Amino acid sequence: MQNAKDESATAANVSGPAVHTYHCLCTELVLASTTPLKTLSTRTADRAIICPLSPTPSASSHYAVLHNTILDRKPTMLQRQDGFEKRYLHRCPRCELIVGYQLDESQYEGPRKPGGRREDVVYLLSEGLTSTEEMEVGESVEGRTGLVAANG
Predict the structure, then answer these.
(1) Comparing 26-35, 36-45, 112-121, 143-152, which segment has the lowest mean pLDDT?
(2) Cα separation of 152 and 135, whole Å?
(3) Quick check: is 11 in a domain?
(4) Residue 61: band (very low, low, confident or very high) from pLDDT cuts 50, 70, 90
(5) SS3 24
(6) Rounded to an integer, what is the distance from CA 131 to the centroid of its chain?
(7) Which of 15, 33, 55, 86 could in theory staple to 104 by disulfide, Cβ–Cβ 3.0 to 4.6 A?
(8) For residues 57 and 63, is the Cβ–Cβ distance under 8 A?
(9) 50 near 33, Cβ under 8 Å?
(10) DSSP annotation of 149
(11) Is 52 within the bounds of a domain?
C-alpha cells in the first residue's frame, strides 16, 4: 500500500518534463516546448530563436511542437548581404502575424532532401511571441515591441 507521499512522487515521475507554452501577441496558442525559449540559441542575422522540432516526444531531451500555425504556401525570398534566403513563413491563424519561419533545404550544408523546407527546425521571432506565464501576470506587450495598445 502506497502512502500519499509515494503517490505524489510517482505522479511527478510519470508527468515528465515541464511544458512551456507560447502565444502570438493576439493570445493564440502557437508553440509548446519542454525547453524555455530564452535558453535556446539565436541566429546572428535576425536574432530569431533556433528551435529544433522533434517528430516524437522524448522524456529525456528537448521536444517542441508548433501548434495551430498557418504555413505560407509559397516561400518568401530575402536578399541578404551573402546572397538570398528562401523562407517558409509561419503565421498566427487568428491575426496572421508572422511568428516564425523555416528555411529551404538548399540553405543548409551537407546531405539534404531535394527542395522544400527543412522540417526539423523552426526559427521563432521572439517579438511576436509571449509565454503563458507572461500573459498570466499581465506583462505589457507595449514595452516589449514598441506597440501601443488601442484604447477601446
Answers:
(1) 143-152
(2) 20
(3) no
(4) confident
(5) strand
(6) 10
(7) 86
(8) yes
(9) no
(10) P
(11) yes
Which residue do the cell numbers 506597440 mark? 147
Cα–Cα distance between 67 and 70 in angstroms, integer? 9
Q: How many domains does the chain have?
A: 1
Total residue length of the chain: 152
Round to whole Å and give the CA distance between 33 and 71.
19
pLDDT on residue 16: 73
- DSSP-derived 3-state class of residue 31: strand
Domain that holds residue 26: 17-139
Residue 89 covered by a domain: yes
Q: Does residue 148 lie within any of the structural domains?
A: no
Question: pLDDT by residue (tens digit) across 114-131?
Answer: 778 999 999 999 999 999
State which amino acid sits at residue 23. Answer: H
